[in-house]
């Protein structure tokens, strides 16, 4: 699931770098403020542990293949989201530098895909809510498995989105998604089983280790802030992705638009179009014979581009409206969950 | 279990390269980190059908390997091991994009093959740049450079802890895995049940070790930051290094020397 630099465009890589760097800064401030400094060495050493654990394989029953731990959800359960995010990020940085597992520019993507989703989406929003205060053993198992599977669907989904948005690889969105998601459903199942086994081992041997993370700073986790963040994120992705998606389906058309229009992925209105045309005129491709192949299909290309402009803004609008509706649903379900939680808390006290 | 030991040895070898004493090793790490970033951004920013314009960028890894006296074969092997991962996705390009773009005499090359080759070249360039950065700088120095460039201190300290205990824990994990392997003839007993308790005990041991480490460090006056033995200064050599490489990358990004040279040669003969 590590993304490589070679498949990334600077726009996508830079955006994800900014997102990950911002989250790291936020988490560092949070860890510094909230936790005793004992946690920092613990995080580092647990990161080293994750490294060691990932080197050890186990055989998966009935398949003849072997797997290893991913560990994102495990760290979130052990350390709480902020510390877990930092630990995952540092493991990924070491992997990128020493094993060239995922590139340095792709590091932002990788940290986000493998750190943000388990630590800030799955753990606080799904795991904590489903787990309740005093879970039975079977509940603990299935919730952990379920959460690991969600995390390992969100991550690959983001990988597909980032790769397709970069436009270096040409695998169509749907095909890529169909390749990635089913495989990761199986991986997520295995990851969940292993994670829940390790958690229950720790609970049996040293239950006090699991207490601080469960109690840590989650009273102050404001649902409102999460939702505002998601609102912004969803509107942004809805706008960007749908503008792009409507342009994507016809591979040939896409290629032609690229040849005449440079290398950016979203059309940004008339200014960008003229700039692109200008760039198309200025840049020479004698090596690759581009002007010739472009002129072969010239009659279709300009018409297409002009046509697609209003369509694009239309679908962007639809994307934003759609994401607003979805968000409304999410807010509602969140409120319902929160209400249920409150009732549970008051029922216990 | 050869694989864990081998991975560890490989890791240590790369780590030891940073102890070299070339002029490149002595530069302030910040300059090296920034130059690699400029390099990566310029390589990545090419359009997906660009191939010839990417090739001149190999000058960067080549010069660095030469200057810092790094083992080229070892690095090439490491790079070659990683590239297939990028190609797994890139190999679909020829299937999707079959429009002919280049005619080399009678051979017609489709855009898909062109972009696939471009992905391969990008992978070679970016991976080698990252490895060379570690080999000439070393992980602790990179961390310090990133911290000076604005990375939060908590994150930097935690990264340094991770790095220090990585070898210890990997060896411990390797020993545990070897013991399990010796007790499980024909791989029975390597299933999830024994795996989870093995990892669980490794986790508990790690946790206790972390507590001991922290107490020992407190006893020795740890204040939350690592002390540095070697102080770097961003002086004139660093400034020159950063500026000259950046200027070269920008030039290579704007003009395509491979193409210009090719045009010149073909013009000479026609």
Automatic annotation (TrEMBL), chain A:
GO biological process: transition metal ion transport
InterPro entries: CbiM/NikMN (IPR002751), PDGLE_dom (IPR025937)
Subcellular location: Cell membrane
Matching Gene3D superfamilies: 1.10.1760.20
GO cellular component terms attached to this protein's record: plasma membrane
Keywords annotated in UniProt: Cell membrane, Membrane, Transmembrane, Transmembrane helix, Transport
Bilayer topology annotation: Multi-pass membrane protein
Transmembrane residue ranges: 41-60, 72-98, 104-130, 142-161, 181-202, 223-245, 317-337
Chief localization: membrane
Protein name: Cobalamin biosynthesis protein CbiM
Organism: Geomonas limicola
Gene: nikMN
From TrEMBL, chain B:
Keyword Transmembrane assigned: yes
Localization terms from the record: Cell membrane
Primary localisation category: membrane
Record keyword Transmembrane present: yes
Record-level GO BP terms: cobalt ion transport
Transmembrane segments: 31-47, 53-72, 79-96, 119-142, 239-255
Protein name: Cobalt ECF transporter T component CbiQ
Organism field: Geomonas limicola
Gene encoding the protein: nikQ
């Amino acid at each position: 699931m590590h993304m490589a630099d070679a498949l990334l465009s600077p726009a996508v890589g830079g955006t994800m770098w900014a997102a990950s760097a911002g989250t790291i800064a936020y988490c560092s401030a949070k860890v510094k403020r909230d936790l005793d400094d004992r946690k920092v060495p613990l995080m580092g050493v647990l990161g080293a542990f994750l490294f060691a654990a990932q080197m050890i394989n186990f055989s998966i029953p009935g398949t003849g293949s072997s797997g290893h731990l991913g560990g994102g959800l495990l760290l979130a359960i052990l350390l709480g989201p902020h510390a877990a995010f930092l630990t995952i990020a540092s493991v990924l940085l070491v992997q990128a530098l020493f094993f060239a597992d995922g590139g340095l520019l792709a590091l932002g993507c990788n940290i986000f895909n493998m750190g943000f989703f388990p630590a800030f989406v799955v753990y606080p929003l799904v795991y904590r809510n489903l787990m309740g205060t005093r879970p039975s053993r079977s509940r603990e198992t299935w919730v952990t498995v379920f959460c690991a599977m969600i995390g390992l669907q969100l991550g690959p989904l983001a990988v597909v989105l980032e790769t397709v948005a970069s436009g270096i690889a040409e695998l169509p969105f749907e095909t890529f998604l169909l390749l990635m998601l089913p495989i990761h459903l199986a991986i997520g199942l295995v990851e969940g089983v292993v994670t829940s086994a390790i958690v229950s081992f720790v609970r049996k041997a040293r239950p006090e280790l699991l207490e601080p993370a469960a109690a840590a700073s989650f009273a102050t986790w404001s649902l409102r802030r999460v939702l505002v963040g998601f609102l912004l994120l969803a509107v942004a992705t809805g706008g960007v992705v749908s503008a792009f998606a409507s342009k994507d389906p016809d591979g040939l058309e896409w290629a032609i638009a690229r040849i005449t229009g440079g290398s950016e992925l979203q059309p940004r209105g008339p200014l960008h179009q003229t700039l692109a045309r200008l760039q198309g005129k200025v840049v020479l491709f004698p090596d690759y014979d581009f002007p010739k192949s472009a002129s072969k299909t010239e009659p279709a290309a300009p018409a297409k581009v002009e046509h697609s402009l209003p369509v694009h803004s239309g679908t962007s609008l639809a994307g934003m409206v759609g994401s607003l509706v979805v968000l409304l649903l999410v807010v509602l379900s969140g409120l319902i969950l929160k209400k249920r939680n409150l009732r549970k808390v008051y029922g216990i006290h | 279990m050869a694989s864990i030991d081998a991975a560890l040895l490989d890791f240590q070898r790369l780590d030891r390269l940073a102890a070299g004493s070339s002029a490149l090793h002595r530069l302030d790490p910040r300059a090296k980190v920034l130059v690699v970033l400029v390099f990566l951004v310029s390589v990545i920013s090419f359009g997906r059908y660009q191939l010839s314009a990417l090739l001149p960028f190999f000058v960067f890894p080549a010069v660095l390997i030469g200057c810092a006296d790094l083992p080229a074969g070892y690095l090439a092997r490491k790079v070659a091991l990683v590239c297939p991962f990028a190609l797994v996705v890139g190999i679909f390009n020829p299937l999707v994009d079959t429009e002919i773009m280049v005619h080399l005499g009678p051979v017609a090359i489709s855009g898909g093959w062109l972009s696939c080759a471009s992905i391969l070249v990008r992978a070679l360039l970016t991976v080698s740049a990252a490895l060379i950065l570690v080999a000439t700088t070393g992980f602790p120095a990179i961390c310090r450079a990133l911290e000076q460039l604005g990375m939060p201190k908590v994150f930097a300290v935690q990264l340094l802890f991770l790095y220090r205990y990585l070898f210890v824990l990997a060896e411990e994990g390797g020993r545990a895995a070897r013991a399990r392997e010796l007790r499980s003839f024909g791989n029975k007993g390597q299933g999830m049940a024994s795996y989870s308790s093995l990892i669980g005990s490794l986790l508990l041991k790690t946790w206790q070790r972390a507590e001991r480490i922290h107490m020992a460090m407190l006893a020795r006056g740890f204040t939350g930051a690592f002390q540095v033995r070697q102080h770097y200064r961003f002086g004139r050599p660093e400034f020159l290094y950063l500026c000259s490489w950046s200027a070269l990358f920008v030039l290579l990004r704007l003009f395509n020397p491979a193409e210009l040279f090719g045009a010149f040669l073909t013009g000479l003969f026609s």
